Amino acid sequence: MRLFIYQFLLHLATPILVVAALQQAIKRQGGLLFFLQRFGFCLPKLKNIDHWFHCASVGEVNTVIPLIERILAQHAKKKILITCNTPSGKKVLSNKLYKKVEHCYLPYDLYLQTNAFLNMCKPTQSFIVETEIWPYLFHKCHKKNIPITIINARLSKRTLNAPQFIHKLYEQSL
């Protein structure tokens, strides 16, 4: 029930997400691709991704690069997808792992967008860097038997001070 309420509220907030995504696309020079991918459009045509890493932004991308380089050194044929939420994260990724991995922006945690993303890449394993808790995404990964590993997780004071509804949603997600 909490997940339904979360999805309902998130769908109500979609106009705000549209404005925020437009601002970020312009301010951070992510362009039209950033905007479209955040809403589940223009996702790359990838199938059967071995490892999917979600990195919120630059710090998380930098954190995970040595791990990805090691995976690629040991298993050159592994298909790796990295998602992030910001154009700056994509830029760092492009500079350091150019053409070795796939990239797209992670769509917002909305029903259709999340399903489109997971159906597009079909990851066998997911790694969430830092504490990016996406309740619907985690729910769908569980339903599709996609294991989730959280790397370098920590909860901020802001997260701990969230309303009880959010605490229960996080508890259910994790």
Topology:
Blueprint: H1 2-12, H2 14-27, H3 31-38, E1 51-55, H4 58-74, E2 80-84, H5 87-96, E3 102-105, H6 111-121, E4 126-129, H7 135-143, E5 148-151, H8 157-160, H9 164-173
Parallel strand pairs: 1-2, 1-4, 2-3, 4-5
Helix pairs in contact: 2-3, 4-5, 6-7, 7-9
Please provide a brief summary of the model.
This protein has helices at residues 2-12, 14-27, 31-38, 58-74, 87-96, 111-121, 135-143, 157-160, 164-173; strands spanning 51-55, 80-84, 102-105, 126-129, 148-151.
Description:
The chain has 174 residues and is of the alpha/beta class. Helix content is 54%, strand content 13%. It has helices at residues 2-12, 14-27, 31-38, 58-74, 87-96, 111-121, 135-143, 157-160, 164-173; strands at 51-55, 80-84, 102-105, 126-129, 148-151. A 5-stranded parallel sheet has the order 3-2-1-4-5. It is globular. The mean pLDDT is 89.
Properties at a glance:
54% helix; 174 residues; alpha/beta; 13% strand; five-stranded parallel beta sheet; 9 helices
What general form does the structure show?
globular
Percentage of residues in strands? 5-15%
Chain-averaged pLDDT: 89
- The Rg value, from CA coordinates, equals 16 Å
* Oligomeric state as shown: single chain
What is the count of β-strands? Answer: 5
